[in-house]
């Protein structure tokens, strides 16, 4: 090992900067998660913001230069904070409130999400060697962040340009949101009100002769956040959302109304029938998302088992090579004592079990089982996320719900919150391994990153809980509406209802629709697996089509527009798109979501 002193890493300003930036960016993921069920990896945004702040101050003669490894600690802290969304704030927690009426105080909720996330950190430390050192999984998001940080410090002007794009996009997005809220409401663009779907004679007798396109949600809303997310997810997902939106809201929804399975909404052609149509469309949408995700997950599981088999053959050589690596030995930058893991696991197991028992009255044995099952699912989640960059959170959540539904039949609280621990901690683990991959590539010390992650989830728990309670003071009335579709909440709620009450509560005609949708989801997942890799972008995304059944058609249209803009930019300037579109998109997402949180806070205070 080199005797040269290493540059500063875990400095006070690095932790505080990451803590504050994480607290600022966490509400963005809470906001977008409740809107469309997705979150954004904030690592690159956090690195750019801190670079601009501290190196700007340094040029003014204030403070020393912002070092690369300090930035990595900052980015790790902020990213861990923003990943708090995995701990349940946009899925099982609001679903529990809707189903049971249980409400949470700020501190109880903050302690809960911190406990779930802390379990994820400990398991990530336990899996790090296997995933990053022995199996050498790519963890593409971690690699992308490391490359971006290196480019920032190798090409200063490029970093300044990225910061300019990030700030400009965020400013424009926030101004558009603020203008439409505080000054003049920006109108949605829609086709003539006389365009729509005719109703049957029985529906017309109730005073509704036409379901206008606006009734069905076909309009373009002035949301730059959705355009930004569309640019991030790409054309395959964007086109799948648009196709799913047309299928659900223009074809199946009106058909179910005319069949008498859905009560028609108001005869006013300007009013969206979101609530009326969602009660029916939710079920085939959830079925499609669930079966598509589980089928893809099954293919991943098969690959994982095969990987373990191959890994087992070379495990002795791998361990020997690792033991010869000085960086993995005591004093090396990648060394972390196993005592840290065992002590951390004891704390996580105790804290999580006590929290489950005292807050939700979950039996001790089920609480312990929830933590232990996290290891199994975390291994799978980390493997899938390490190979693809996409953690299978949706599928894991449903697997854990089904597991605890079998262990505690009809108990909705156990079904949701024990599954919250297992699925949430496994998801957090897979997210945090990307940060450890970044640190491994840029030369960070593992122990210091682990400490930074703990500070990060503390920031995320405090800020995320505040954002959730400010945005959604009444989940029962506010969620599953046009303004807050909350598709992840809808999915967890639907599964919990079926496990508790059976299929008797499902609306007329939905069981057949669910079976067909599930078969379509399985078929699309199989097709995606079986076609050649260079042709897979032509296969529709089953999960995205299912999502389009749950969110308003206007959101699917905006997401498709963002994907289309990104595609066009890539056609004319592919290198610019590769380097900068993600930065602009991050700004659009952050600007509107932060302004949305501010608006909710102002409304709450007034």
From TrEMBL:
Cell compartment(s), UniProt: Membrane
Membrane topology: Multi-pass membrane protein
Keyword Protein transport among UniProt keywords: no
Transmembrane segments: 12-32, 38-57, 78-98, 104-127, 159-180, 225-252, 280-301, 334-354, 360-382, 450-471, 506-527, 547-569, 581-605
Family matches, as Pfam families: OPT
Major localization class: membrane
Family matches, as InterPro entries: OPT, YSL-like
Superkingdom, taxonomy of origin: Bacteria
GO terms assigned for molecular function: oligopeptide transmembrane transporter activity
GO cellular component annotations of the record: membrane
Keywords from the named record: Membrane, Transmembrane, Transmembrane helix, Transport
Matches recorded under NCBIfam families: OPT_sfam (TIGR00728)
Listed name of the protein: OPT/YSL family transporter
Species of origin: Puniceicoccus vermicola
């Amino acid at each position: 090992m080199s005797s040269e002193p290493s540059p500063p890493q875990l400095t006070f300003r690095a932790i505080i900067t990451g803590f504050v930036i994480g607290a600022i960016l966490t509400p963005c993921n809470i906001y977008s998660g409740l809107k469309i069920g997705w979150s954004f990896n904030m690592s690159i945004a956090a690195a750019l913001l801190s670079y601009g702040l501290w190196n700007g101050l340094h040029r003014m003669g204030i403070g020393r230069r912002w070092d690369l490894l300090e930035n990595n600690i900052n980015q790790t802290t902020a990213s861990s904070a923003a990943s708090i969304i995995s701990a349940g704030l946009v899925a099982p927690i609001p679903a529990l409130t809707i189903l049971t009426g249980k409400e949470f105080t700020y501190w109880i909720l903050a302690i809960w999400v911190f406990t779930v996330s802390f379990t994820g950190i400990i398991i990530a430390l336990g899996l790090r060697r296997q995933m990053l050192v022995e199996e050498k999984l790519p963890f593409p998001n971690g690699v992308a962040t490391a490359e971006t940080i290196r480019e920032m410090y190798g090409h200063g002007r490029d970093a300044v340009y990225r910061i300019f794009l990030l700030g400009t996009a965020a400013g424009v997005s926030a101004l558009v949101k603020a203008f439409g809220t505080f000054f003049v409401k920006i109108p949605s663009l829609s086709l003539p009100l006389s365009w729509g779907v005719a109703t049957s004679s029985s529906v017309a007798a109730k005073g509704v002769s036409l379901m206008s396109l606006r009734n069905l949600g076909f309009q373009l809303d002035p949301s730059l956040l959705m355009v930004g997310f569309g640019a991030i997810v790409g054309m395959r997902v964007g086109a799948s959302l648009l196709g799913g939106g047309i299928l659900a809201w223009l074809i199946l929804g009106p058909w179910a109304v005319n069949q008498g399975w859905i009560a028609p909404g108001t005869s006013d052609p300007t009013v969206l029938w979101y609530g009326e149509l969602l009660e029916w469309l939710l079920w085939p949408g959830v079925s499609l998302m669930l079966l598509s995700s589980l089928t893809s997950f099954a293919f991943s599981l098969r690959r994982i088992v095969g990987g373990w088999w191959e890994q087992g053959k070379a495990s002795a050589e791998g361990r020997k090579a690792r033991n010869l690596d000085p960086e993995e030995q005591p004093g090396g930058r990648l060394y972390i004592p196993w005592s840290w893991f065992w002590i951390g696991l004891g704390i996580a197991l105790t804290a999580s079990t006590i929290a489950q028992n005292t807050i939700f009255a979950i039996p001790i044995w089920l609480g312990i089982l929830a933590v232990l099952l996290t290891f199994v699912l975390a291994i799978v989640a980390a493997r899938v996320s390490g190979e693809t960059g996409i953690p299978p959170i949706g599928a894991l959540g449903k697997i854990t719900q089904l597991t605890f539904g079998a262990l505690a039949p009809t108990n909705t609280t156990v079904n949701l919150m024990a599954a919250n621990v297992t699925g949430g901690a496994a998801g957090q683990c897979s997210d945090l391994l990307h940060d450890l991959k970044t640190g491994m590539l840029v030369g960070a010390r593992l122990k210091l990153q682990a400490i930074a992650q703990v500070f990060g989830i503390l920031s995320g728990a405090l800020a995320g809980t505040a954002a959730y309670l400010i945005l959604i003071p009444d989940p029962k009335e506010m969620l599953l509406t046009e303004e807050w579709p909350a598709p992840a909440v809808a999915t967890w709620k639907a599964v919990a209802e079926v496990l508790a009450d059976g299929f008797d509560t499902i609306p007329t005609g939905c069981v057949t629709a669910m079976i067909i949708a599930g078969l379509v989801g399985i078929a699309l997942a199989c097709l995606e697996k079986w076609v050649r890799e260079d042709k897979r972008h032509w296969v529709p995304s089953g999960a995205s089509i299912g999502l389009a059944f749950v969110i308003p058609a206007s959101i699917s249209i905006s997401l498709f527009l963002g994907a289309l803009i990104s595609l066009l930019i890539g056609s004319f300037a592919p290198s610019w798109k590769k380097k900068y579109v993600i930065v602009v998109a991050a700004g659009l997402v952050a600007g509107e979501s932060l302004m949305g949180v501010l608006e909710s806070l102002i409304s709450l205070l007034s």
